[in-house]
Amino acid sequence: MRIDLHTHSTASDGTDTPAELVRNAAAAGLDVVALTDHDTTRGYAEALVALPAGLTLVTGAELSCRLDGISLHMLAYLFDPEEPQLLAERELVRDDRVPRARGMVARLQGMGVPITWEQVARIAGDGSVGRPHVASALVELGVVPTVNDAFTEDWLADGGRVYMPKHETDPFEAIRLIKGAGGVAVFAHPAATKRGNTVPESAIAELAAAGLDGIEVDHMDHEPATRARLRGLAAELGLLTTGSSDYHGSRKTCVLGEFTTDPEVYGEITRRATGAFPVPGAGGGRAV
Questions:
Q1: Where are the strands (E) in the chain, listed by range?
Q2: Among 76, 103, 169, 283, which residue has the least CB neighbours within 10 Å?
Q3: Which residues contact 215 (CB under 8 A, 6 or more apart)?
């Protein structure tokens, strides 16, 4: 089995529609894919309708969190998407994205960059607007060559010249909310230093004690030595280890199935979850 548990669609900051994503996942030879858009499950219904036979879809979301001033992301799997407390928190985070993005546009304009809110809104479409959409606007304008080049201290990185904070969930609260909705909590790319500061391993231990289920180890932003270190830490703490592409379509260079999750780990995730269940495709879509 080939299992990719971290992907994004146009419901947040990916470039594939949810239907395109599941079709492309099938074409890439995946057996299981999790749709984990930022702070939303709005793409799930479209993905489900288009789900090709032979591909199983996992409900998911990537929750924006912050601990001691450091941004981090928590992957939530197989939770009840209508559970009121987790739904309210996701909406709070998502709604705060708009004034934040408008603020970043204003800062860029003050620096002489000819960016407009209309441009960013066009790029975001119906998705939850975020820094990648602002970064894509900068690429369109020729200010930076790639989206990744926009995530530096000169531009959009945490603490950068254009960075603005938004509402982010305390990760301990995120774990409580995910568990309360019957889901499974996995810390996304915990050592992705390319993205900025990361929390210390002592914080991961504290999160494990609070009910964290696993950490994402095999990820494009983790070097081989980092993956080995995280695997050892997970063994010490009794955490599951996952692998995934963090696919964003054409917005990033990673491809579907670039990293995958061990079938036994996936099986344990499904055993722990009570809020939702994986859905096997019945042939609603056609692989492209």
A1: 3-7, 32-35, 56-67, 70-77, 184-187, 214-218, 240-243, 279-280
A2: 283
A3: 186, 187, 190, 204, 230, 233, 234, 239, 240, 241, 242
Return the pLDDT at 152: 92
Task: Give which of 54, 57, 53, 68 is closest to 21, Cα–Cα.
Answer: 57
Mention every residue, 6+ apart, whose C-beta is less than 8 A from residue 264.
none
Query: Is residue 223 classed as helix, strand or coil in its secondary structure?
Result: coil
Residue 206 Cα to chain centre, angstroms: 22
Q: Kindly report which listed range (75-79, 95-99, 227-231, 262-266) carries the lowest average pLDDT score.
A: 95-99
What are the distances in angstroms from CA 237 to CA 77, 173, 215? 20, 20, 10
* Angle, alpha carbons 255-257-260 (nearest 5°): 135
